[in-house]
Structures
1.
Amino acid sequence: MTPKHFKRYLVTSALPYANGPLHLGHLAGVYVPSDIYVRYLRQRGREVISICGSDEHGVPITLKARNEGISPQEVVNRYHELNKKAFRDFGISFDIYSRTSNRIHYETASEIFKTLYDKDVFVEKTSEQYYDEEAATFLADRYITGTCPHCGNPGAYGDQCEQCGTSLSPTDLINPVSTISGSQPVLKETRHWYLPLDRYEPWLRQWILEQHREWKPNVYGQCKSWLDQGLQPRAVSRDLDWGIPVPVENSEGKVLYVWFDAPIGYISATKELTPDWEKYWKDKETRLVHFIGKDNIVFHCIIFPTILKAEGSYILPDNVPANEFLNLENDKISTSRNWAVWLHEYLEDFPGKQDVLRYVLCANAPENKDNDFTWKDFQSRNNNELVAILGNFVNRTIVLTHKYFDGIVPEITALTGQDKAVLEEISTIASGVEQSLELFRFREAVQKAMDLARLGNKYLAETEPWKVIKTDAERVRTILNISLQITANLTLLLDPFLPFSMEKLRGFIQFEGRSWELIGTPDLLKAGHMLGKASLLFEKIEDEQIQAQLDKLMKNRTENGETEQLPAPKEEITFDDFTRMDLRSGTILEAEKVPKTKKLIKMVVDLGFEQRTIVSGIAEYYEAETLPGKKVTVLANLTPRTIRGIESKGMILLSENPEGTLHFVEPSAEAKNGAAIN
RNA sequence: GGCGAGGUAGCUCAGGUGGUUAGAGCGCAUGAUUCAUAAUCAUGAGGUCGGGAGUUCAAGUCUCCCUCUCGCUACCA
């Protein structure tokens, strides 16, 4: 639990995927916590490096490139630079921000693959996958479209139908079409290498479930869930032309699967940073910590450690403080719906306020469960905490010092019991912050750190220097000296959280100290020291600014919202096509939920000429008991299909709203059972 | 359906190994104060700790059942 036995720290932050810009969810979940952590460690003088970079391989990038008519490299170049700049702008202090399209990464990933290959770690398997004969290439799932077997959407992708949300495999699609050439793909055998996670399961159980019980509950639980469900071998290669070529013979057209090479990017980046990289990756006295979001838990807790373990010479992560997700104004952040706050846009609207966002995201970080970011909360934390508590204390201290002592730190004349208690309290607060940080409890840490500013305000309120000055100027010297010491200590204590503001504050008081170990020192500022020029540390955020952000979000929502969610018009058909469908009016006689399913209801429907058993996935929208007597439209000549052991003869027609709710298409009351619909 | 994570004051959250009147911040009310960006300080009101049963001298904290939210997974128009 206590990290004392570690000599040095290797901190990694999830490599952002280089096919889009960063939003505040990324910052809150991964980069703000990791940056606070490494800044704190540096300040303590610990040996630490912070590693990050762009993850630049994988199918989505090739798709984006294809859509825009540019090369994958151009896509990743664009977002690598954009995201690198966003991190820099927000003071995320990586020691290196690398990228997985670098040569050194190709070498590192290839080497590790080779090592595992030579050790016979992989299993080779042949399977059938779609192949585009015109383009002479295997097709990734996303490159295949076809008709969804479930909802009939003709534009479903090979991995998922975006209309009904079902996840698919390419062979499920009806009439599959290659999006590359438009031709009909054929199934062809292909050979791939698999990482046999199942063989490492006993070891993983031991290592995680026994030896890392201290991991956060959400992380530990997620791992347990995966382990209990049983691990399967996972393909480490793919047929694709964008990525790291599989470094063995007879592997033309095959690259490493992006999940295999991405985490190795941490290693390559370390190599790029320092020739001394091995002491970080191979010395047991290094503490490896991965900061990630919850979507990455399986890769960092199960797959990557398995790779490292199989390789044999690397250390394993000591902790993986994964955060949950941040919602935005009560809704999931969504890139495709443009429901997000983009980092570069934030800085345009709130220039110079990166610390405000860092603060709010830390204080409200989704550490244990999904959390909600609202602009109103952003405003109130800024106005009530940063401005009113921290900024205000600093300001009143500096203003009083200028007013009474011309900006020169006055000397201590005599210490009262209260003065001593306040000075001692500084160290107590600091050690509380330390404890929280060591346990990755960042929201608690920042809360505790702010207590020092609260203490300062309380001290001023109780000692009332503005009153005492009229009767006892000597006493005021001590009071302001102590207030200034608190201010100087604040610059140290809050620096990991608010680096820009503390830099500014150091300028206000002309203080140079940086070391964490100085915290608690009662004379950081010597008597006679001249303060610098000061201004306001934080400013209020007005309602109009908040409303503008809300309006911007709502505008985006209506623009790419509901209308685009409606399915695209289908291609024209003939009357003949239509008449092939035998649509009938019917009435539900019986209905019961199919046991052990979430969505299925089994119904008996009266079609006049006969009674049919039909299974339908509507249990999430209708109670079985309410259904008997309901009139429905039935597609009567659909090929029967056995679902959960029940033969379903026909299909009940339902309308589906953009948000996914289902509603019966009901014939009017006069329609008799079995009446044809045409 | 299976697995996992959650459901604690109006809001956001803390609550090692069960033990006196369940905590913090914000919000709210009242009072004090004016050095300060009408900021600050003090006091107070507010909780059947999702519901039920059980173990125990004693449960927010352990066991079981139920319920709601989120994630993964299965099944599925």
2.
Amino acid sequence: MNTNQADDALLALAQSFREALRQSVYVMRRLDSEEPLSAAQLGALKMALDGDARVGGIARNLGVKVPSATEQIIKLERAGLLQREADPDDSRAVRVVATPEGRVAVENADRRRNEYIAGILGTLSQAERDAVAAALPVFDKINNSLQNQARN
Amino acid sequence: MNTNQADDALLALAQSFREALRQSVYVMRRLDSEEPLSAAQLGALKMALDGDARVGGIARNLGVKVPSATEQIIKLERAGLLQREADPDDSRAVRVVATPEGRVAVENADRRRNEYIAGILGTLSQAERDAVAAALPVFDKINNSLQNQARN
DNA sequence: CCTAACAGTTAGGCAACCTAAATATCAAGC
DNA sequence: GCTTGATATTTAGGTTGCCTAACTGTTAGG
């Protein structure tokens, strides 16, 4: 039947998609393992760059619970890459602000990682790069769906 | 200059690609967190299904070191999902074989995860699904490049 | 034989996540 | 102007999955 065929195609695509996800996790591990700033720390520090990030907001954006964000923030603070300040409007809250060193660290971390990936992308054909570029927004959409659906 | 423009485009694509990778890691965590079989265990168990998998081969396929594979295998063995047997050809080696329960567990785990992803994919337009399907082989190629390049 | 390479396990450690509980502040109702 | 429930964060303690180093046993080449 038509619906079953459609379902099968969808399931097959889902299977391939999952395989790509699995590989991505592996690639991320490799990519980050030799860097001075871990992925978790880079993510948190990036949000501190805006200057008005609070711990809870960082946790939400990173997709982790608040204590996990606190943990990364403490590490970054000890490394001198950001500072925690009292929020003038709400003394329960803590504002997280990157230091100049933190800003430099983010720039370096991003640049190195981007150059590394760009090196790989450069070996592809233009058609392949186009295929990737076309799919990225859809990936984003999928990821957001999954994110919202899994929200407690 | 032309090369600089090309480089810039490549770097921009790399940046978006990295963002997608980051999200993928997050999505995988959500996807696996409510499942009885973890991603690491499902991966190892799948290879045991073929029947002729050895610990080193599983580690290589999972992209982890041998002790990490051993760890997952021991957990799976304790759960009754696979068995370790002496390799008749090489007594240093251990052959890892899934039990019937293990086979069922893989089928269930795969089916549930696939259905979950398929549910999301079903909300996309056909054009979007085509874009994903077109990009997956390229992702695979990229991931393999990164994998080989990062090999020690 | 003997020695180097190989397959696997064990031991110990680290990063990043989690939940539960403690602390402090805010804000709403009476 | 208190009390009480909600909110923001930290602390404490635990889990998972990965790693390296060191150990045991087996194989194979010279």
3.
Amino acid sequence: MARESTPNSTPQIKAQLIEAQDRFIASWGRMGSVWGISRTMAEVHALLYITGVPMCTDEIMDRLRVSRGNVSMSVRSLLEWAVIEKVRLPGDRKEYFQAEQDVWSMLRAIARERIKREVDPLLGALDEIGELSPQIGSNSPEDVIALHHRLDEVREGFGLITTLTHKFAGPRGAGLQTAAKLLAKAPVGRPTKRHKATESKRNPRRGSRS
Amino acid sequence: MARESTPNSTPQIKAQLIEAQDRFIASWGRMGSVWGISRTMAEVHALLYITGVPMCTDEIMDRLRVSRGNVSMSVRSLLEWAVIEKVRLPGDRKEYFQAEQDVWSMLRAIARERIKREVDPLLGALDEIGELSPQIGSNSPEDVIALHHRLDEVREGFGLITTLTHKFAGPRGAGLQTAAKLLAKAPVGRPTKRHKATESKRNPRRGSRS
DNA sequence: ATGAGATTTCAGAAAAATCTGAAAATAGAA
DNA sequence: TTCTATTTTCAGATTTTTCTGAAATCTCAT
């Protein structure tokens, strides 16, 4: 039950531990920016996850060397993502935060959020565009038909992805993990015969320029 | 075979068509920034995909209103992603570009690239961190054990994801589509019983504060 | 209610990403 | 090879995102 420190902890080991944590935090933070979340937000999450210790705003500020405002906003987003939660310690007025400790729940949260922010808006836009574009009649010009065809394909592809995400990446449940294991065993589909340029046979350039 | 224009195309319809294309391009471009690729790169791809027409640098510049340098760099990235390809028209010195027309191939490319840029570096870092951190002995302090445990969990989770991606998102083949359909049918896993705070029983704060 | 401590907000500062434009490099035709 | 259309490169400009810090707001024990 860890008191002043943990058993057997030499200062030497403690330093290595912190070094390792910092490296993890840095890597996770770097990824964060690639995921479209701020570096700090990712770092706060990494810190809470890798240490497993609930921390308050000041502790996070000190450890990551970032401003109070930044921590406040990052924490709020993480709470929305549901990958950390508030903890109150009796007799302490501060709020502490602790990370969800199950990796899969974390991965599900990431998947969910990304779909929400990336795919849903696209699907919405696709619907609007479909309505707005010239409707298909008995003898529409071929480029109008092609447009609808492509819009439909994109909608179908991303639609399927959204459905799957809702199915497997709910905030609770072993969905993602199940899916992953299922797929790991499944045989992979045979390559399709290459059909480049499904649409533009030969080269449909020339004309239809301006 | 479309000559001066397409059959039945009134100027009215043509305008609507272009309007719809532009909206698609704009949406795709917006998504691009969320995917960590530049807006222009996404727009170039959208333009080539939605029109289906091979275009040269100047045509892309004119349609998207961006600089030559920007188009050049975007096109290069798209070629690396393998979602567009070069086309040469005999008797024309310019290079034309045309988009892969199969949505799934496009989705696979996106998945592949994201894994390469986001997950692979993380896995590399995790290995390094594992070596660098205090090694586990017969009676290591509990926080060192916990660190290794968490590093392993993360590595395992993302490792599985990488494996799946390599399996299902190769540049050829119907892998992703197969996987998606497979999953769409599969029964979803039963929710796990909630086990919050797996790690920190009670509240392991106090002490170990430094 | 009061007030000390804690959190949120947000305008402006700082940093990062993206884009431009023109010079340099390249590549095809003759 | 030479000439020229085309492409690439990259320093600096622009735009976007993120961060800071302090004032405003909130909240809870008394």
4.
Amino acid sequence: MRPIKWRCSTASVEKAISALVNADSTRERILDTTVELLRRHGLGKTGVVDVARALDMSHSNVYKHFTSKSALFDAVAERWLAQVMAPLTKITADKKAPAAKRLKQWTRTLAEVKRKKVLGDPALFEVYNSITADAHDVVAAHVARMRDEVAEILRDGVRSGAWKLRSPGATAMLILNATARFHHPAMVGLDEGRTDLAELDALMDVVIAGLSN
Amino acid sequence: MRPIKWRCSTASVEKAISALVNADSTRERILDTTVELLRRHGLGKTGVVDVARALDMSHSNVYKHFTSKSALFDAVAERWLAQVMAPLTKITADKKAPAAKRLKQWTRTLAEVKRKKVLGDPALFEVYNSITADAHDVVAAHVARMRDEVAEILRDGVRSGAWKLRSPGATAMLILNATARFHHPAMVGLDEGRTDLAELDALMDVVIAGLSN
DNA sequence: GTAGTAACAAAAGTCAAGAATTGTCACTTG
DNA sequence: CAAGTGACAATTCTTGACTTTTGTTACTAC
């Protein structure tokens, strides 16, 4: 393999890097202020003009970084979802604990995190909900990610001999469906934190018992 | 026990009965017309004045039969729910089939009926949904009824020795929760009839297997 | 005393104007 | 060439006068 010849001066490289870094940082700054305004004034009263004004820039420039208002809000939701996933991914990665225990803990944590977010950050939850309603690809990606994590825990269980499963992916979807009542935004929003998560534990006990057959 | 003495003429009795019958029939007529208008013009564009006009009566008279607009719509939803329950109650009553099979059939039918109603009667579904959102007691009653029917099937299973359950009522709620994804109005509305009910069957297989432990 | 009505206040809905927002484009700047 | 701007059309969002609807009450008729 022949080494690539970089046809550029150090100066032009630095410039390009700084441009990229700047692009990224203003992108982040825009996202930050959007979240801030969203929290303060809610979804309805936050527009790209407001965001631009808060940052002392023309609204056209916001469109340089996000192709549309909904793209901007999608990015906010994506970030929000990343925060939701973080504690779950930790559980998925912790290969020491037995799969059944991790599976139960995973669904419980999902429900808890969603609940905390709904109660503690209602404005951002509203953003996420409006995106869910439009059936965006952000949601599809999120569901796929959740399914993959659950499937990985299931595969660990298969490897350790706890279960025999034909399709861990399909079973993962089955588990997400079975527990939707406790973590799906459309349902968490309805009974504002009234449902008892002990019911979720009981449900998972039955599902896990059923998986062992 | 001493026989009750009826202190009234046949004439006054007939009058009272006819009054009751009439009350009932105009009540029914009002409900019928409401459903009709709801179907034709949707939830937003149907008011008690419209209903009264369609029946050639003053709107005040509608208020003689229903205390408020929402009471009228509650009654519509109640009727709608009764239609949903009918095929389920049949399954609950059919004591010949084994409990596990009936349980699976029951949840499947619930999902199917809800789906059919959503697709075939979107206007009335909208009414039902708006009532669900306001967390009315109509919904609580409906959920209680569903729980009781599932609990009865579960008790049949316990009697026949298929399962041992501490609390059929709690387990019934568990099953309703687990299958909410497939029959809860808030979810059925989202993926307009796209979800595969085979997934519900698979889920119920796992739950039923889990119940046997 | 039940079915029904007419007249009324309060709340909610309608609609067209003017205002603001979304999104595009040609343009400047480092 | 990427970050940024001002001017612009198209589209949505207010706003406030006006209309309709909701719900009550005092009434008639059987």
